[in-house]
Design brief:
The chain is mostly beta strands and 117 residues long. The protein has strands at 3-7, 10-13, 18-25, 33-39, 46-52, 58-60, 68-73, 78-83, 92-99, 104-107, 111-116.
Amino acid sequence: QVQLVESGGGLVQAGGSLRLSCGVSGRTFGSYIMGWFRQAPGKEREFVASINWRFGSSYYADSVKGRFTISRDNAKNTVYLQMNTLKPEDTAVYYCAAKMTTQYDVWGQGTQVTVSS
């Protein structure tokens, strides 16, 4: 069974940077999608970015395009989310997720990111 563990969240001032990590353990397959989502207080969970584990192709929400970068390290079984030029509206709990089939069916526990103005 696949397990995901996020780390790297914290408190940062607006304009600053953070890098989130998502460690992937357990039985995995060659080609699947890893995604980052976030949920702010009182709001629904929203898509942030995704990457194809095998091919490395990535996609971003318009709200983070040009500021966030998703990447993966196959040797370390880790997915990263580099977040630059952070804004207060980026404050949320960030979740890592894996799409093994047709939907994101494995989720991490989440890591809090707080951006102060």
